[in-house]
Design a protein that fits this description.
- By secondary structure, this protein is an alpha/beta fold.
- It has one domain: Glycoside hydrolase/deacetylase (TIM Barrel, Alpha-Beta Barrel).
- About 35% of the residues lie in helices and about 10% in strands.
- The chain contains eight helices and seven strands.
- It binds zinc ion.
Length: about 220
């Protein structure tokens, strides 16, 4: 039961997670979790700006608190910010009060960083049973998971080429890719991976969008 409903990105109790964009167009959403960090996020933002790519950042409240100016930069530069909890607990079998507290505390920090509306939530570890969907529904928020989570990004020796290749090989219309700007290691390799992804997917005809993409409204 736990694995049946809790882990798979496409399945949740009560609400349908956004694990893929509903489109047949060649668009891809790059999403970045656990940030902002002072190590990976600034060079990533520089890169995205250089290529004119907009991405979605699922930030942690405690990191927004630690690096408010970087969070502000994310919103100023036109990226979409989503809520990834305050300090990354497993929201499995937690009380409604605890879960709501994690979301509200982070929302208020994100708002201070300039975001108008925080509609999208990605739970830590994509653990979402069983109270979380009820709370998200009551707060009129959308649950976002992902289509593809490249395993090579978790290797101790982060290799940018390997991570990029995994994403490029698994690209298809509407894919939501999960990456992490909140990690502290290998900033150069991380940025190299994202650059390779952008160049290769553009050559394949893909455009980059955020998870609020609705076919017909953008591009
Ligand atoms: Zn996370």
């Amino acid at each position: 039961m736990y694995f049946y409903i809790n882990r798979p990105p496409h399945r949740a109790f009560l609400i349908k997670p956004i694990y893929k964009l509903n489109t047949s167009k060649k668009v891809i959403a790059l999403t970045f979790d656990d940030g902002p960090s002072d190590i990976r996020t600034p060079p990533l933002l520089d890169l995205l700006k250089r290529y004119g790519v907009k991405a979605t950042f699922f930030v942690l409240g405690q990191h927004v608190e630690a690096y408010p100016e970087i969070a502000q930069r994310i919103t100023d530069e036109g990226h979409l910010i989503g809520n990834h909890s305050y300090d990354h607990p497993k929201l499995y079998l937690k009380t409604p009060r605890f879960i709501r507290g994690q979301i509200e505390r982070t929302d208020s920090l994100i708002r201070q960083a300039g975001a108008q509306e925080i509609k999208y939530v990605r739970p830590p570890y994509c653990v979402k049973m069983i109270i979380l969907p009820i709370i998200l529904k009551s707060m009129d928020k959308k649950l976002v998971t992902y289509s593809y989570d490249p395993m090579a990004q978790y290797n101790r020796d982060f290799n940018g080429v390997t991570v990029a290749d995994q994403i490029i090989e698994n690209a298809s219309p509407g894919v939501i890719v999960c990456l992490h700007d909140g990690r502290q290691d290998h900033p150069e390799e991380f940025v190299k991976a994202v650059e390779k992804i952008i160049i290769a997917l553009r050559e394949m005809g893909y455009a980059f969008v955020t998870v609020d993409y609705t076919e017909g409204l953008q591009h």
